[in-house]
Each structure stands twice: as structure tokens, then as C-alpha cells.
């Protein structure tokens, strides 16, 4: 199943066309894309039993928003790929990856224009992003996937100067400028993948590939990451979890490389789709 936020309305994507959920369900489910996660089990049951969905309509990618536009929590993992830790010159995490947040106001859809911070060093970070479907607190690795509504593509855009400024780094601020958390193009439920723990992810700037890896290279794969996070804090329905980025970021290059006005960043994950961000001064 693929669900999308189309012009602010919850939609099912069926054979490449959009079906409005509020209309198709006779008002049983609200149009608000974020609200569905509080009723995820009921919604999945309705979709599984719906035999006569209305015909969908065509849509433009630019009309899609983030599939979870207003989560209560955004949790992001750092240094969750060995090659990225190596390029950053940092030790591998042991019990838990470094954890930070991206503030909700940074969330945007899959096709967007992002204003670069003045005088900053803005970097790219392709990431697999998951959305929680049912509350997860102190869950085991074996049970973790049952709490995931689905997967989407994300970019953890990062302004490195403020992120790394001392005496204490400002990770969350440096990663939360407007537009710095694009997600989409839609949410894909785990059952759609042959192996949801092994997906190719990549990104390019102006057609030049910058990152390419597989989620099977995660130090803390999705089930383990959920288990470790939920041992500390409850993950709530609709919460968003960024799982980390592989090597190839601008910070780790020699010479270092940053996004500039006019650049186009294309980010994709196998079996989900792609994001497109264009940058302006």
C-alpha cells in the first residue's frame, strides 16, 4: 500500500493514480494526512477489505506533501553507517547512535525549493525514513516492524557551520532550517518490499552521484534502532524516524563541497521513489 499527502489530503496511490481517502471511505477517515496514524490498524483493515475503490485521478509530483507532515516527534540517528563514521573521523557508536531531532517546521514535501542559509555550508544526507503506525515503547527487535506504518525517502539537509559550532554542537538547529527535512513522495508499507531491511539509496547533485549504498549496511538496522530508541522514549503513532546516512556527504570530501544556488538535489530509494530539491540564495 502507498499513501500520500496530495494537496493536504490523505490519498491512496493505486496504479499511479490518487484516490481521496475521505471521499472513498464516506468520511470514516479524515482528509488530514497526519490523523490517519492514530487509527492505523483500523485504516489498514479498511484498505484490505475495500473491494470497490473509486477510480483514481492523475496528479503532479509538485502537489505532493510529506506523508507525515505534522509528527509529534522527529527522531534522527547519526553515524549509523560505518563508512560515514569513517569519513567523519569518528568512532563507531556502541550501544546507541547519536540521536538528535529535526524540528517539525523543517518538514516539506518531495518537490521543493529550499532557501540556503546566508553564509552557510549546506550539505546533503540521503536517508531511509520510517513512520510509526502503532505506539512503540520497550519493544523487542522481533516486534519492531509491526509498529512501523511504512517507509519513505528523506533528506537530512544540514548546515554544517552552526551544526558543529562550539562549545556544544547545535545539531538540531543546524538541521532544521525551513525545507531541511523533505520527505516523500509517499509512504510505502513494509509488506510491499521483498526485504525492507535491504534497499538501495542514493543521491546526486546536478546529475553527479554523491551517495550510494544499501540499508543492509546500517549499523543499527530498523528493528534494532526501534528497540533501542523505544527503550528510552515511547515512539508515538505518526512519529518520524530518520535512520542515518551513508558516506559521500560534502563534509567528508576533499575538498569539501556544499550546495549552491541553482543546484538540484535528487534523492531516491529503491521501491519508494525520489525527491527533488532546487536551491536558491
TrEMBL record:
| Taxonomy, superkingdom | Bacteria
**Pfam families noted in UniProt:** FAA_hydrolase
* Ranges for domain Fumarylacetoacetase-like C-terminal: 74-279
User: Would the keyword Hydrolase turn up in this protein's UniProt record?
Assistant: yes
Q: Name one GO molecular function term.
A: hydrolase activity
Q: Which InterPro entries match?
A: FAH, Fumarylacetoacetase-like_C, Fumarylacetoacetase_C_sf
Keywords from UniProt, A to Z, are: Hydrolase, Metal-binding
Coiled coil regions in record: none
The UniProt entry's sequence similarity note says:
Belongs to the FAH family.
Record's protein name: Fumarylacetoacetate hydrolase family protein
Q: Which organism is it from?
A: Streptacidiphilus alkalitolerans
Amino acid at each position: 500500500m502507498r499513501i500520500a499527502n496530495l494537496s493536504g489530503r490523505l490519498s491512496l496511490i493505486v496504479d499511479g493514480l490518487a484516490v481521496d481517502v475521505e471521499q472513498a471511505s464516506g468520511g470514516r477517515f479524515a482528509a488530514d494526512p497526519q490523523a490517519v496514524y492514530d487509527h492505523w490498524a483500523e485504516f489498514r483493515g479498511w484498505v484490505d477489505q475495500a473491494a470497490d475503490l473509486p477510480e483514481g485521478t492523475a496528479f503532479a509530483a509538485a502537489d505532493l506533501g510529506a506523508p507525515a507532515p505534522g509528527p509529534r516527534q522527529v527522531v534522527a540517528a547519526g553515524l549509523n553507517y560505518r563508512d560515514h563514521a569513517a569519513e567523519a573521523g569518528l568512532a563507531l557508536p556502541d550501544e546507541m547512535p547519536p540521536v538528535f531531532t529535526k524540528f517539525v517546521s523543517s518538514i516539506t514535501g518531495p518537490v521543493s525549493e529550499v532557501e540556503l542559509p546566508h553564509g552557510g555550508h549546506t550539505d546533503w544526507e540521503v536517508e531511509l525514513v520510517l513512520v510509526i503506525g502503532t505506539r512503540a515503547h520497550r519493544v523487542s527487535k522481533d516486534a519492531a516492524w509491526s509498529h512501523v506504518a511504512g517507509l519513505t525517502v528523506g533528506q537530512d539537509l544540514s548546515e554544517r557551520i552552526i551544526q558543529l559550532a562550539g562549545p556544544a554542537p547545535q545539531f538540531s538547529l543546524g538541521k532544521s532550517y525551513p525545507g531541511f527535512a523533505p520527505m516523500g513522495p509517499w509512504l510505502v508499507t513494509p509488506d510491499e518490499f521483498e526485504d525492507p531491511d535491504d534497499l538501495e539509496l542514493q543521491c546526486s547533485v546536478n546529475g553527479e552521484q554523491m551517495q550510494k549504498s544499501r540499508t543492509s549496511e546500517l549499523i543499527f538496522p530498523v528493528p534494532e534502532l526501534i528497540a533501542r530508541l523505544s527503550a528510552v522514549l515511547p515512539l508515538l503513532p505518526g512519529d518520524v524516524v530518520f535512520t542515518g546516512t551513508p558516506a559521500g556527504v560534502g563534509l567528508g570530501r576533499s575538498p569539501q563541497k556544499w550546495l549552491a544556488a541553482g543546484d538540484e538535489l535528487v534523492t531516491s530509494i529503491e521501491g519508494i521513489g525520489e525527491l527533488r530539491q532546487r536551491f536558491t540564495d
